[in-house]
């Protein structure tokens, strides 16, 4: 598979799906759901220029420290962590880049994930401010908060329906702006959910991502998962 990918006989999307499968990740298990990277950092421009390297996320860094400001906090947390019982090893992040709650968070508008989310929240929707309501806002939250380290799921590259509240669920309204949470708010450069998926997939297959995707793969599936390389890359999880 690797050789095929290097020779560009299979797409970045297909390669990531196959890597996830080989790593034991599957759509049948929310706790081991396929994981895909955030690949862009520009969610505010009117036009998305895929020839400009500045619109892409730095794929060599874990999402928690893509914003340089967070690196110091994350490093200190690791260095100062001491488990009095000596049971827990030092870590940079107390949560994970992929977990069941995160998958339900993204897919809340689509069954069976809606029902699973409601069960998780003891029979009702979580408060609106914690819902997935906007792609630009979700990215901003990642940049502001080193404790939020969610990567993406494959649906961001092929499934426009999950961005629409087609079932008309009452997801509440945001506290500050009183805005009703309905369809997911898209980046300015996307004119519809289909347009977002089309451009996002194009970004995934772009020259920049093809050249740098292996750096992210090292973090998630490769030699930077644990040990000294993980410590150095600020990539140690609880």
TrEMBL record:
GO terms for biological process, alphabetical: intracellular protein localization
Pfam families the record matches: Beach
Family annotation (Gene3D superfamilies): BEACH domain
Organism superkingdom: Eukaryota
Cellular component terms (Gene Ontology): cytosol; membrane
Repeat recorded as keyword: yes
Metal-binding listed as a keyword: no
Keywords: Repeat, WD repeat
InterPro entries in UniProt: BEACH_dom, BEACH_dom_sf, BEACH_Domain
PANTHER family registered for this protein in UniProt: BEIGE/BEACH-RELATED, NEUROBEACHIN-LIKE PROTEIN 1
Name listed for the protein in its UniProt record: NBEL1 protein
Source species: Grantiella picta
């Amino acid at each position: 598979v690797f050789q095929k990918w290097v020779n560009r006989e299979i797409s970045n999307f297909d390669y990531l799906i196959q890597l996830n499968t080989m790593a034991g990740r599957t759509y049948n298990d929310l706790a081991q759901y396929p994981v895909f990277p955030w690949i862009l950092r520009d969610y505010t421009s009117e036009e998305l220029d895929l020839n400009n390297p500045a619109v892409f996320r730095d794929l060599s860094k874990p999402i928690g420290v893509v914003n340089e400001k967070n690196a110091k906090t994350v490093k200190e947390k690791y260095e100062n962590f001491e488990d009095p019982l000596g049971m827990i090893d030092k870590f940079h992040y107390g949560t994970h880049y992929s977990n069941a709650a995160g998958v339900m968070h993204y897919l809340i508008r689509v069954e069976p994930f809606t029902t699973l989310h409601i069960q998780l929240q003891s029979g009702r929707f979580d408060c609106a401010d914690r819902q997935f309501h906007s792609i630009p806002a979700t990215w901003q939250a990642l940049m502001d908060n080193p404790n939020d380290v969610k990567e993406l799921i494959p649906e961001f590259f092929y499934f426009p329906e999950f961005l629409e509240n087609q079932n008309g669920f009452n997801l509440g309204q945001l506290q500050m702006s009183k805005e009703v949470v309905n369809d997911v708010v898209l980046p300015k450069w996307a004119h519809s959910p289909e347009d977002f998926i089309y451009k996002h997939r194009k970004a995934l297959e772009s020259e920049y991502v093809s050249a740098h995707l292996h750096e992210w793969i090292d973090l998630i599936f490769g030699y930077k998962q644990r040990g000294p390389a993980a410590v150095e890359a600020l990539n140690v999880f609880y």
